[in-house]
Structure formats: C-alpha cells, structure tokens
TrEMBL record:
CDD domains: PSTD1. The gene is truD. It comes from Moorella mulderi DSM 14980. This is tRNA pseudouridine synthase D. It comes from the Bacteria. Keywords: Isomerase. Transmembrane segments: none annotated. Belongs to the pseudouridine synthase TruD family. The lineage of its organism: Bacteria, Bacillati, Bacillota, Clostridia, Neomoorellales. Its EC number is 5.4.99.27. The keyword Lyase does not apply.
C-alpha cells in the first residue's frame, strides 16, 4: 500500500463555525496549499507583505504532504489575496476575532490508497465495517512528534525535570525526520561542540541560534535565560508534543488493562495498539471515555485511569506539580479532555479500481469526517494493520 504519492491523494478540508461579518478587524481567508506546512507558508506570506507574523492566526496545522484547505485570519485591512503554483490565499469576509482551534468542528478527508493487491483490498473492505461498529483509538500520529529527537527524546520532558541544559540542547540540536542535510550537519556540529559556545556561535545560522549562543558565550550557564528566548508559540507546540506522547501512553495502557486482543503498529514515539472488535461493555466504556491532557491540574474519568497515569509519571520521574513551570513562562501546560476512541462520520469506501500510477495494482478512495484533532492517517493505520 502507498499513501500520499501525490498531494491529491490526501485532501483535507476544515469544517468550521465561522462568525463571518461584512466588516471587521480581522480579514478572513481560505488558504489552499500543497507542499507547504501551515506555519512556514504563513511566515513566508508575512515576510512578503512586510507584516508581523503575530497578525496571522489559524485553527490547526496542516500537513505539507497533502492538498489542504483551511481558514486563516489576518489582523490587517489590506487584501492579501495571492495565487501561486502551490498555494492560494483568498479573502472570503471578515470576523471580529482571530481564527482559532475553538472555531473548528473537524476535518473532511478524501484519501486515495494506491498500489493495493487483491488481499489488501479485501482486508481493507472488511475492516471498514469493523471501524464503523467499534471506532478506533484516538492516538496522536507520528507527525505530532516531529520535534522528538531519536536519541535525546522530547525537549519538554527534560524541561519538566529541570534539566535546563539538556532541554536547551534538544531544542538547538534535535534532528527532525525531514531536516535538510545542511541543518542536520550544523546541529551535529553543535552537539559535538556543546559547551564551547564561541565555536557554536561561529557556526550559527538562524537568528535564534545566534541569539542563544551569543548569550551563552558571555554567560556560559545561562540556560534558563536562553530557554526564555524561545517564542511562546514554538514552545507551546513543544509542550503539546509531550502532552500527546503522554496521552498515547495512557491510552495504550487502558487498552491493555482491559485485556483486549491488540495488534501493534510501529510508531516513532511508541507502538500504536489497535483492537479489532469490542464486547458491548467495553464499547460502551471506551465510547464514553475522555482522557485529560497532562497538566498540573487534571480531571480523570475514573480512579483506574488516574492510577495508570500516576504509574507513567513515576516511571518517567515527573510529578504532577512539575507541569506548573515557574522559570520558563512564555507558554504553559493546559489540560483539556480528548476522546479515547473516534468514529469517522459519513464514512464511505469506493470500490477498488485499476491504479493509474501502478499498473497491475488497484487503488481505493476513502471519504470520511473526523472531529478536530483526530488523525486521518491513524485511520489508515487501523485499516491496513497486519
């Protein structure tokens, strides 16, 4: 099976409740893109129009390896409508507030699975009915953990343990899956020369690298001050990655604790465990289960879930109070509930047909809707698991 061979194989459209006005402080746009992630494209647009990036707001981050449609606001009167080969920004009205995640209801997906054999087609067809009846675990998928360094782990965990030096090292030297060769080599250089701040400063390229290494060259142990330089929005994404990691771990343990027959699919931050079917009691429990994202204050649905989370915290050497950071405060951990399992809406599967890109193989198209924050790629993992 092949996924995302071309951007049109993975189409995502935001579903939102937008308080659109004829006039307002915030101009509303529909952003259509391919080959760009949301933040990089908005930063490019901000630079092109000589505007501060903070004037741009969005509801969710969209994958670069897809054809996506999402809503963006800009707190600026001029019409920034733009059309280029791989993206377009089109003004569609105004709002009295910026775009944000709270306005999103979910996403609508149209996905093409390619290079399928006869056995795979039969398996996927059968599993669509299983998912309709029993849903699937609402894990955060691999793309959520792009900031995770394979050797050093997640930056936020080091920060919670007050390992300020290690946390800063992951931030500046962590190598991400899609890192370009030049950036990868530069980060390896920083890692090899960590502590020799003058040498690191001489190799620095980005503004943030230069600012932090310049600070450390003059104040060699100023790790906290350096961490305080990280922009709040960027730090918030790093915190979210760690909350997602802990959510996935808690959900895994709940499924194991229920004694379910589980199938493991590899993931960059731990395996994804899937059930095939559920008994009526298990289905009722999981369908009503909401799990809290990690923070100093959390509300658990039951005592057993809280005990499982406490065991995770103990294993990782973290206390609940650790999430209340006192020295790095430009972002914070906030607990919100997330569904443990998800049921795709308007879920339909087109019959298999010959694959125009892979002669002798077949392709299938899936159409479905998911609530905000749920991953279409996780559904694909469930449908194609061993």
């Amino acid at each position: 099976m092949k996924l995302k061979v071309i951007p049109e194989d993975f189409v995502v459209r935001e579903l939102a409740r937008l308080p659109v006005r004829e006039k307002g402080l915030y101009r509303l746009y529909l952003l259509e893109k391919k080959g760009w992630n949301t933040i990089d494209l908005l930063m490019r647009l901000a630079k092109a129009h000589n505007l501060p990036y903070r004037l741009f707001a969005y509801g969710g981050l969209k994958d670069r390896h897809a054809h996506t449609f999402q809503y963006v606001t800009v707190k600026h009167a001029a019409d920034l409508t733009t059309k280029e080969e791989n993206f377009s920004l089109r003004s569609i009205g105004y709002m009295d507030r910026p775009m944000g995640p709270d306005l999103l209801e979910g996403n609508e997906f149209a996905i093409t699975l390619r290079a399928l054999g006869t056995v795979e087609v039969s398996r996927i067809t059968r599993r669509v009915d299983e998912v309709r009846g029993f849903g699937y675990p609402n894990y955060y998928d691999d793309q959520r953990f792009g900031s995770m360094d394979r050797q050093m782990g997640l930056m936020a965990e080091r920060l919670l343990k007050r390992h300020y030096n290690g946390s800063l090292q992951i931030y500046l030297t962590g190598i991400y899956p899609e890192e370009k060769k030049e950036a990868r080599e530069r980060k390896l250089f920083f890692r090899e020369h960590w502590g020799d701040w003058a040498t690191c400063l001489a190799r620095a390229k980005t503004t943030m690298e230069s600012r932090i290494f310049s600070l450390l060259a003059g104040k060699p142990k100023a790790y906290i001050e350096a961490l305080q330089m990280i922009p709040g929005e960027e730090l918030s994404l790093l915190f979210s990655a760690y909350q997602s990691f802990l959510f996935n771990e808690l959900l895994r343990r709940i499924l194991q604790d229920l004694g379910l027959d589980l199938v493991a699919v590899p993931g960059v931050a731990g395996p994804y465990l899937f059930y095939r079917r559920l008994e009526r009691k298990e289905l009722a429990y999981l369908k009503s289960l909401f799990l809290p994202l990690a923070a100093s204050r959390m509300e658990f649905p039951d005592a057993s879930t809280e005990q499982l989370f406490a065991a995770i915290m103990e294993e990782r050497g973290i206390k609940r109070s650790s999430f209340n950071l006192r020295k790095v405060r430009q972002a914070f951990f906030k607990s919100t509930p997330r569904e443990a399992v998800v049921f795709p809406g308007d879920f339909r599967l087109q019959p298999a047909e010959p694959d125009d890109l892979y002669p002798g193989r077949q392709k299938m198209r899936l159409f479905f809707k998911l609530p905000r924050g749920s991953y279409g790629t996780m559904l694909i993992k469930r449908l194609t698991m061993p």
